[in-house]
Structure formats: structure tokens, C-alpha cells
Specification:
Blueprint lengths: L4 H9 L4 E4 L12 H6 L15 H11 L7 E3 L4 E5 L1 H9 L9 E4 H5 L27 H10 L7 H4 L10 E3 L14 E4 L7 E7 L9 H16 L11 E7 L7 H19 L2 E8 L3 E4 L2 E4 L3 E10 L16 E7 L11 H5 L14 H12 L5 E4 L4 H13 L2 E6 L11 H7 L4 E7 L3 H10 L5 E7 L3 E6 L2 E7 H16 L5 H12 L17 H4 L6 E6 L6 H10 L3 E6 H5 L10 E4 L11 H10 L2 H12 L4 E4 L4 H8 L4
Parallel strand pairs: 1-3, 8-9, 15-18, 20-21, 20-22, 22-23
Antiparallel strand pairs: 1-2, 3-4, 5-6, 6-7, 7-12, 8-12, 10-11, 13-16, 13-17, 14-16, 15-17, 18-19
Helix pairs in contact: 8-9, 12-15, 15-16, 20-22
Amino acid sequence: MIKGNCNVVKEIIYPEGAESDIRSVVVGDNTLSVLEIWGAEYQEQDALLIKPENEQLLRAVCDRERVSMAVIGSISGSGKITLVDSKAIAEAAANRLPAPNPAVDLDLEKVLGDMPRKRFEFTRQQPLCEPLELAAGVTVMDALRRVLHLPSVSSKRFLTTKVDRCVTGLVAQQQTVGPLQLSLSDVAVIAQSYTGLTGGACAIGEQPVKGLLNPKAMARLAVGEALTNLVWAKVSALEDVKASGNWMYAAKLGGEGACMYDAAVALRDAMIDLKIAIDGGKDSLSMAAQAGGELVKAPGDLVISVYAPCPDITKTVTPDLKLGDKGAILFIDLAKGKRRLGGSALAQVFDQISDDCPDLEDVGKAFSAVQCLLDKKLISAGHDISDGGIVVALLEMAFSGSCGLKVSLEASEKVQLKGRPLFEVLFAEELGLLLEVDQHKQEEVIAELAAAGVSCAVIGHVTASRVIDISVSGHECIRASMPELRDVWEETSFMLERLQRLDSCVEAEQLGMKGREVPSWKLSFMPTKTSDKFLSCTLKPKVAIIREEGSNGDREMSGVVHAAGFEPWDISMSDLLSNIVNLQDFRGVVFVGGFSYADVLDSGKGWAATIRFNESLLHQFQEFYKCSDTFSLGVCNGWVPGNVGSELEV
């Protein structure tokens, strides 16, 4: 719930109106005033409208899930929101005083109906733009090292190693890719079920620094980046793509409101051209703070999150190069030869913004063409060109594939930087796509793209030597060890990691990365599916999938148990404590993992205590473990009650 009861309740009852008792709202502090309860903003509640006859059903569900529920009012048909205070009414009656007026008695049409539009007046301010100036002694390698250290470009290991990236068991593509699990995934994919191949894909795009130069281009580039990330998962159609837009602007400050308006108009036009649409989002329009006489203002930003249905989640490619010496690298240029450095990582690491920034040129045809290649499984790896330019995109593909590259790029006639085209070619953040394909199929891929009206060029090939060799117009500008460059790319992440972990642990991991090799993936057994005679059996052994408040591994475990030939039953601890079910009906019990009791310290012990200190339930487990033909399993937080259960005195 955002903006409190005062906002959510009146919206959900519009236009009918309702009467609500403020004292029906569940609070943790009974001294809170009516105003505090009604206006408090918090996100731990939802408001629902239900039919009166369904109240008991909803209450039963809430009781089973240990969720607090309160009926706070009823639809009145008055067209008003009337808020009464039953406590104040009772106190007045006890003192033989007249009942107080309602705390709120508001005509909904006056606040939610056909309201007069507000008028805002903004002024535009022209940004101070200067061409990028690089000192005469700066080399490509100097610039590359700086760019690889930039947080927006460098490894995100410090984030991805501290989260569970596969909760639910339905995650088909998570944040990390390749044999070394580097945080370089462009797109997220999730399956709809444990047995089918359909699902959904989502991706994100944002370019805040570009907005300092051109808010319109920033909005269009955010869409372009999101789509060039999403393209690597096969979706039903470009027209099926929907988006969420999150706006962050200091809108009340001079020039910012106009920038946001320009960005919104540009976003609308770009989405109309692409035939995609926004269906939600949020905004934060106070992105400035004043302290010590200084005003700190965040750059205006628009984060576009796109999502679409996936007919086949297996038709997804990742950036990690996979073909070794047999791989060819293809480049799809979506900028028509332009190489603009405005708002780039290169400019940023030299404390500049530059002048002319990239823009969205043409992404629709390329999106559809690459989708066709995915459908035919002609691409083994793919990556978008974004922060850091094409050189960083190429390196990231090599880093995640733990291999080398030999690439030759050409400077077009549109590239001019005072006689230094190398930087424009390598670091311009123009939209583009990089593909790894089998060398024997590269002509087929080029022909497929050409038939769709998309031009591409073969710019190099993969090598197993783990050496990066990149030249521009015949001039070799980068020749270095891939592991050494990868270490540079990882350095910033490890520095941030030291702020949240022991130095000794970080140092050990950093040293391990330097010599880490691709795992051999040799299994000591041959995986086989469960025999059909067990899966088709009508009477299967029942297994209780036991979950506690906050557990989220139950559906995944049910899928595992079902695939093994058992009959999974969803059992909450409430079911056991209220004697709705009995363990004597089951041959197995599984205590699932995932954030029981919000994953607070010793939450597993708390779960175990609900068994140990309930005499009836304790007896059930004692009897269960006496049997020689039963089994139990505990995972994550569920290991504690599972382990304790196996040690119960019988």
C-alpha cells in the first residue's frame, strides 16, 4: 500500500462510496491518532473488495497463511468516503455526550472525478556542451582501464553473489552467465511451470548521463537499450512487448520539468513507432537535497523495464562465447555508422560529458531479424552494445566465455575526432548488437539478416588462446591477456565487496579469480528420468511439503517430489498445529527452504521450536520417525526443523 489508507481506500471504493471505522485497522500502537492511522504510508497491506458471503473463505485463507485480516467498512452507495471513530463514539456515549462528527466525510467526485487539470509552466535551459578533449598522451589502454573501473561498466559481482538468483526453481535465465558465472546477463527469463517451455522475459534500459545533454535522446535510448537486451530471448512478437516506466527527476528545479516533459513526449513517440506500450510505472520527482548550503541534484532518469511472453524459454542466448576457434563475431550497427561520445563512460572517466550523444536510429527490424535467428538456433552468443561501447561489449563476451578474441573494426567516414578515430570507434555507446555464430553458418546468418533488411559485418573470430587482439582500420590498439583485463574489470567490484565482507575472504576470492579455469562438468552418474510406471501410478506415496510463514521453496519442492514419482501435499505449519492433517498419512516429509519468519536470525530454530514445544505435534513427529519406511528432508532454513526432527527422542 502506497500513500496510506486515505488514498488507497477512497480509490478502491470510487464511485460508490463507503463507511469505514478507523479502529478496525490493525495497528501495533494503540496511541496512534486517527490522522496517523489514516494517513500513514506503508507497504505491508493491501486493500480488497469482496462480497460479504466470501468473508469467511478469505478469513480461513488468511488464518492458514498467518496473515492479519480486518474488515474496515462496507460499500454504502453514498458516493462519499465516511470515516468514523468507534472509540470516540463509545467514549462520547459513556459520557452522555453527542456523537462526534465523522473524521472524514468527503464527496469522492470532488477528489477523484472530473478534476480540473493543473497547469505547469516550465523553462528550458540549454546544457553547456563542449567537445570531448583527451590529453595528447592518453592511449587506448589508459582509457580502457579507466572505463573498466567505472561502476556502471565494471563487474556487479558484489551484488549478485549475495542474493539467491533462482528462488522458485522457475528461473530459466538469471543474472550470471558462462562457466565462471559472471554478472553479465542481458535478459531475465522465467518459466511458467516446471514441465512446460512457455514463460516470460524481461529486460531493463536506462541512460541517465545522456539526459544531461539531450533528454529526448535519453528516453529513446532507454527504450533502445531495453529492447537490445530483451532481444536475446525469443518472445512472441515485438508488438507484445509491454513496459514499465520509472521516472526520477528533480522536477521542481529550474529546467528539470521541461526536460522531463521533453523526455515523456519522445518516449511516447518512440513507443508508437515501435508499436509497444507502457502499462505501469512509478515516479520520484523530488530527486534533490539541500545540505550545508549546497544543492545536490540527481541527473534526470527514466528506467524502462520491458517484458513479453516467451513461447520457448530454451531459445535464449547469453553473452558468453561458446564456440572456441569455430566462432565468428558479427556486428549489427544500429547507428548507421555514427559514433558519438556524448554522455559516454569514456567522457565520464575524464570528468567530461562531451557534446553530441547517441540516439535511437532503427531497432525494430533488427529486433525481429535476430528473433528469427534465435528461432532457428543460429546464434550461440549475443550481447548488446551499451555502457563502455563496443570494446567493452566484446571484452564482456570474452570474459564470460573465458576465451580470446581477434577483432578488426573499421572507422567510417562519419567518424572524426581531431584525427583520433580510435576512441570513437571503440568507446561510442551507439546501439548495436554482437553475435557469435558458427563460422560454417555465418553466410547463412548474413543472408537471413539481409533478407530482413538488416546489414551486418563479420568483425572477427573467437580464439581459444585467451588473448584479446583488437585493431581499428588496420591499427592494432589492444593486445592483452584476457584474464588480466578481466581482473581490471573485477577490481571495482572487489573494492566494494570489502565494504560488506571480511578483507581476507575478499582477497581469497580475488586471488582465486585470477587462476580460475572452466569447470570440467564431469558427472559421476548418468541422470535418468523417473520411470513412467511410477509417474503414471494412481496410488503414489504421499509426501508432506511442509512450509512455515515466509517459506518460498514449497512449489519448487513439490515439483521435485512429483518428478520423483511421489504425490506432494502442500502442508503449512498451521495445518499441523490445528490438527487438520496428521503425519501418519505420509511416507515422507520435506521442510522447504526460503526466508521462514523473514529470515531473521535463528528463524530455523524458531521453526523447530513450534514442533518441540507443542506436545501433540511433537508426538506426531516422534511416531513418524519411529517408522522404518519413512524419510525426511530439510533444505536451507528447513534443515533445522528437519534435522531436529530426526533427532527427537522416540
